[in-house]
Structures are given as C-alpha cells and as structure tokens.
Design brief:
It is a single chain. Among the domains are: 39-74, no CATH class; 110-186. It is 48% helix and 5% strand. The chain has helices at residues 16-35, 57-63, 110-142, 156-186, and strands spanning 41-44, 50-52, 66-68. Strand 1 (41-44) and strand 2 (50-52) form a beta hairpin. Helix 3 (110-142) runs antiparallel to helix 4 (156-186). It is elongated.
C-alpha cells in the first residue's frame, strides 16, 4: 500500500507528482517480484515480423529490432503443421507418377529419370509441332499484312485491328516456339 500526502499538509515538502511516481515504482517493483521479472520484448523487422524476448540488447541492435512498450503481447497458437507422410518404399505400392524408385540418399533411380526425361521431351516436341502448325496458319491468314477484308469489316478500322491482332499473335507464337526449343535443348 502506498501513501500519497495530502496537498494541504505543509509539513511535507514532497510534491504530489513525486509521491505518485514513487508509489508507482514501488508497486511495479512489487509486481515484478511477485510475478517474476518480465524481460524486454523486441519487434524485429522482416518478413515475417518477429516478436521476441530471447535477444540480448546487442543482438537486438544488430538486427534492427526495437523495444515494445505498453500493453502486453498476446500470443495465439496456430494449428500444428501436419506430419509429412512416410516415404514410399522402393518395393512398390505407389501409383504411377510417384517417387517410388528412390535410393536411400533420396536420389531417383537413373532408369526412372531417363524415362521421365524422355516423356518430357516427347511432350515438349509435340507441343512444339502444334505451335509451329498454329504459327503457319496464322501467317497464312495474315498474308504479310495484305489479307483480304472480311464481310464483317465494312469499317476499315476493323480490318486494321484484325491485322494488328494477327501480327501480335505471330510475335507471341514465335516467342513461344523459341522458348520450347530452349527447353528441349536443356534436356539430356
């Protein structure tokens, strides 16, 4: 309990503010002693923002953390992460497309990897062929920028818009074909 002097008593020379501060300090010290000493909480920048009381003053300064003062921080427990499924055994039991053929150090069997690479090459080459066919059809329709006007293009601006779209489509398809060729060249 803390006693604050009455302002009308002249025999006390201590101002009321000073008495209140002493009283507050005494109650804080008593609370800290009763509940255990609270440590300084730091807010450290960066994704994700970190709130911690496990840093020393020097570590906090090095990381650019600042102290949190005021109301206490409430920590809400998030859901626990699910445990990873056990690895599939090399004996089988897993469906197609799984990593069932792995060695003890986590590497994929070379035969399985060759099979995957050949499948990927086949898919990329099929996609490349289809892209080249689409490009040829678009170039035929574009006709070097001199395509015939359609009946729906009575307004000349509609014709110009269609030519601009065809030209942009040709450019995109050429870029796609170059990207597919680069991907195929990276395969073993």
């Amino acid at each position: 309990m803390c006693f604050v002097p009455h302002p009308l008593r002249h025999n006390l020379r201590m101002p009321i503010r000073t008495a209140l501060l002493i009283c507050l300090a005494a109650s804080t010290a008593a609370t800290g002693a009763a509940w255990g000493q609270q440590s300084t909480v730091y807010r450290c920048p960066g994704p994700p923002v970190l709130y911690t009381d496990a840093l020393s003053v020097k570590e906090a300064q090095d990381k650019g953390c600042r102290t949190i003062e005021g109301s206490p921080i409430t920590v809400i427990q998030g859901p626990r992460p699910r445990a990873a499924p056990p690895p599939a055994s090399a004996g089988g039991g897993a469906g197609p497309g799984t990593d069932a053929v792995r060695s003890a150090d986590g590497r994929v069997d070379p035969a399985q990897q060759r099979s995957r690479d050949s499948e990927r090459r086949r898919v990329l080459e099929t996609e490349l062929r289809e892209s080249e066919e689409r490009l040829a059809a678009t170039r035929r329709e574009y006709a070097g920028g001199n395509a015939e006007r359609l009946a729906s293009e009575r307004n000349y601006q509609f014709y110009l818009d269609r030519m601009a779209e065809l030209k942009a489509s040709i450019s995109r398809q050429e870029n796609d074909i170059q990207a597919l060729k680069r991907e195929i060249s990276k395969l073993p």
